[in-house]
Every structure is written in C-alpha cells, then in structure tokens.
Amino acid sequence: MRVCKTDQMRLLDKLTIEKYKIPGEILMERAGRFVAIVADKVLKEIEGRKTVVFVGKGNNGGDGFVAARYLQNLGYDVEIILLTDPDKLEGDALLNYKKIDTDKINCRKFDNSEIDADIIIDALLGTGISGAPRGDIAKAIDSINKSRENGSYIIAVDIPSGVNGDNGSADGVAVSADFTVTFGFAKLGQFLHPGRDLTGSLVIADIGLDNRAKSEIPIEYEFATIKEIAELLPNRRTDGHKGTFGKGLIIAGSAGMSGAAVMSGLSFLRSGAGLCYSAVPRSLVDVVDANAIEVVVLPMPEVRKKRCHTLRALGELHKYAKDVDAVAIGPGLGTHFETKDMVRRFLSKVQIPVVIDADGLNALAGEINDTIPKITAPSVMTPHLGELSRLLEMSIEQIAEYKLKNAKYWAKLLFTTLVIKGNPTIIADENEILHIIPIGNDGMATAGSGDVLTGLTTGFLAQGLKPFDAARVGTYIHGLAGEIASQKLTRRAMIATDILDAIPEAMLTLENLPDEKIQIVDELNFKYRARNIGIGITEFRL
C-alpha cells in the first residue's frame, strides 16, 4: 500500500480540490467523521463520555471541529479547546467552526489548566509542522501527554502533533497517541522512529481523493499489508512431494556458531520448502544433526583446528548447488581468510538464486569493484547497517541518514535485492518501488534473529518466488513471528528460537485472514468498509 511524503499529500489534496473539483469541505467532513468514528469505538469500549478536542488554526483544526460535531451528535459530552483566535480561522476550518453549536459544545481558549477527559483528540498541527512546537502549542502538547499519563486515551488527527511526517523525527515535544487517524495514505514518518511509537495504532481513512490525482503522482514508497503478503505465498499442490516444494543448500557454521546453521536450516523448512541441505564444517556435524533432525547435514572439509569452512570445500559445494533451487551463504561462517576466499569464489560462479547474509556479506567487504560485479545469480543481500557500511565503504551514520533516499541506488550498485534490516526493515530493488515492512519489534534485536530471516527468505526463493517477493514474504513472516513471540514472552525475554517457534502461528494467521467487514454507524446513517491490514494498522474505505 502506498506511503506518502507530506508534499505529495498536499499535492494530492490540491489536485483533488482544484483540478478535479471535489470540494475541500467534503474531504474535511469525511476526515472528521472518521476521527469521530474511531473515538466512538474507543469511548464505547471504555464506557467513557467526556471528549476534549484540541484545535489549531489550520485544516487539522477544521477536522477537529467536524469530529467534535459528530461526537456531540452521537450523544457525548464534548469540549473544544482553541489554540487560535476564531478570527484567524479561514477556509473550510472557519466554515466548520461556524457549524459548532456552542449551546451544546463548550468552546474555550487554552489556559493550560488540567484536562479531565476520557478521550483527547489532537487536532493541533497535522503534517504542516516546521521545526519544534513552541509557545502555547508546546504547552498544549505537554498537557495532552500528561492527561495520557493520567488515563486519557489520545487520538491524533492525521499525525501526532510535533511529529515530522517525512522522517518521523520529533524535534521538540510531540503528542504520544494511542490512535492516529490519517487521511488518504499513510505518511512516511509514521513508520520511522520515534514517529512510529508516537503514532500508536494507525487507521488509514479513505476520504475520497480523486483517482486521477493519485495517478499523477509517482509512488515512491509502499508498505506491505498482511493481505498482500498472504497472496504472495506459493501455491501448494495437494499431490506434491519434497522436491515439488523446493530444495535448498545453506552454507553455514563455524566453531562456536553451529546454532546459526541450525536456525537457518529449520526456518528454511518452516517456510514450506521441502528439503534442506546444511553444509557445515565436518567437526560440527553431530551438533547440527542433533538439533536440526529434519535437515540433511553435509560434512565439509574444514580449516584444521579452526573448525571453519575451507577452500577445499568449493567442489562439493558447487556439486550440491546444482541439485537445489536456492542457496544461502553466511550464517555463522566466521571470518577466517580461507572461509572468506571460499565465499567470494563460490559466489562468483553460482548460478541459482542465493541469499547472502552475515559473514557472507563480511566476506564481500571491500569487493564492490571486484567480486560483487561477478555475482550473476539472482540474489538477496540482508545486511544490518554495520554490514552495509562495510559493503559500501560508508559510515554507519551516512547509511542511517540516507537509507530511504539511496536504498534503490545501493541495490543497483550491489546487483541485488537489498534488505536493510532494522525497525522498520526496508527492501530495495532497482526495478521495484521501495518497500517498508511495518512489523517487528525491539525484541527481535537478538543474536540469531537474522539466521531465521535468512532461512525463511531462502525457503521462499526455493519455492519459486522472485528475489524481491521472497524478501518481502520472508521479512514479513519473520516480523509477524516476532510479534507473536513478544506477546507470549515479552520483547525483553524473547530469543531467536522463539521467533523460529512462532513461524507456524504466523503462517496460520496469513492463511486464515478474516474477510473485510462492512461497518454500519446507525446513529450517523453511514456505512464504510473496514479491514485489518497489519499489526496495529486498519484501513477504513468509503
């Protein structure tokens, strides 16, 4: 699903209103109504009555006026706190201010007094913020957050006030919302920290932007929805066998890191693939065999006393690679010079799809003009920021700052589908729209988590998905399994094998998605369609 930058959303609004003649008043009416619907759902759940709406001077404030009017019509006790003089309102915001029945809705200026409310609606700033909030706006944000600490639920209109819609930054104070109702499309800053945490649960509300306007603005970013991922899962023949469902070779392991071979092999099989060979140094065979009994373990020549892969293994590795559908190389390999040389030579000749991770990537550090251009097999590289900095010979700070802007260029430079691991994970391919994986948590920042991802992604490659799709499905299921594990075990306590163990439940979730539901708000004589499109992300459509 499309993700927009703030200037793209402003242009979409402008084209819809000015070129395609859909009045801004109608868009604002729909936006405020959806905010009220979300507030109504929360109020019913908590059996609350009192709502306070903080209103700024722009269109975001106009959405707040509409929401206040609808909530009052639904029978709630509503108060509006103004952060602007009414005579400074203009356009559709002024129009909706004039529709407020002040006999039924108390409307007052902000005085920094303590707020007592079941729900607070933040309609202060929206996506038009430039710099840190100041003056009364900053004080109002502090007041909203203090109320949240005291038990109020916070609903942000479009984006939490103080959050940058393009990069998720919060230069000064920012509202910490429980829910954010955003309009048209999700904003980039809602997936980037700290904006992601401050957004809370995200509702993407369709307010009727013109489809012709949408087609005029190129799509730069998308995020994966759970339905899209489910539709990418490979079909399974009822008369299939282990060869039908894909065979893989995972080149992994060294002294002290046999677990990487175990986890990557098992997660490969958990993807639905049929047969996994795990090529490990000979002295590690018993350990891997005992902990991954479904994996066929291949003993490989090793560097004496170092218990790591050696150049002498190349012939056997290429022989086995000819009999499988995908290869992974890197988990737990170590960085012995002979192992690194083996990795470079293997990758220079392998022709089947390959996932390159961990020490496989480290072996390619400094090889951007030598070995990397020789890799002609379809590939997926899965670096974290440190590994990517070594591949590109750039600082980690530069990688972090420019990863959204330059990820597609880096993928082209590396001749690969590039999975930049993190929160969120980003997937880049020269020929695809940059993809954001909106799922996962800090509990997944644990040793071995990447090995599970490598196995999953390789498994989907072996089942016939193209590298970009295998990367999308693998990373999403990895993240979904991480969410499931965290709910059972807490983010603090979970480890990589918990993610591995949660893969079947993640698969079950994808295979049993609920149908889209038509929601009816009898009191408003209004119908809309609602569907869950991810963990903590809902779409409302007209």
Give short descriptive properties of this protein:
elongated, ten-stranded mixed sheet, UDP-N-acetylmuramoyl-L-alanine:D-glutamate ligase, Rossmann fold, twelve-stranded mixed sheet, 542 residues, alpha/beta, 18 helices
Q: Which spans have pLDDT < 50 for at least 5 consecutive residues?
A: none
**Topology-level CATH name of the largest domain:** UDP-N-acetylmuramoyl-L-alanine:D-glutamate ligase
- Structure annotation, total helices: 18
Mean pLDDT: 96
| Inertia-based shape | elongated
Structural class: alpha/beta
The profile of the biggest β sheet is:
12 strands, mixed
**The CATH top-level class label of the largest domain:** Alpha Beta
Describe this structure in a few short sentences.
It contains 18 helices and 22 strands.
Plain-language structure description:
With 542 residues, this protein is α/β, with parallel strands linked by helices. It folds into two domains: 2-217, Rossmann fold, CATH 3.40.50.10260; 244-511, Ribokinase (UDP-N-acetylmuramoyl-L-alanine:D-glutamate ligase), CATH 3.40.1190. The protein is built from 18 helices and 22 strands. A twelve-stranded mixed sheet has the order 8-1-10-19-18-17-16-15-14-11-12-13, sandwiched between helices. Helix 9 crosses helix 16, helix 14 crosses helix 15 and helix 16 crosses helix 18. The longest helix has 23 residues, at 24-46. The mean pLDDT is 96.
Outline the secondary-structure elements.
Elements: E1 2-4, H1 6-19, H2 24-46, E2 50-55, H3 59-73, E3 77-82, H4 91-98, E4 106-109, E5 119-123, H5 135-149, E6 153-157, E7 179-183, E8 186-187, H6 195-199, E9 201-205, H7 211-216, E10 221-223, H8 226-232, E11 247-251, H9 258-270, E12 275-281, H10 285-291, E13 296-300, H11 314-321, E14 326-329, H12 337-349, E15 354-356, H13 358-362, E16 379-381, H14 385-392, H15 396-413, E17 417-420, E18 425-428, E19 434-437, H16 449-462, H17 467-489, H18 496-511, E20 517-521, E21 526-534, E22 537-541
Parallel strand pairs: 1-8, 2-3, 2-5, 3-4, 5-6, 6-7, 7-9, 9-22, 10-19, 11-12, 11-14, 12-13, 14-15, 15-16, 16-17
Antiparallel strand pairs: 1-10, 17-18, 18-19, 20-21, 21-22
Helix pairs in contact: 2-3, 3-4, 8-17, 9-10, 9-16, 9-18, 14-15, 16-17, 16-18, 17-18
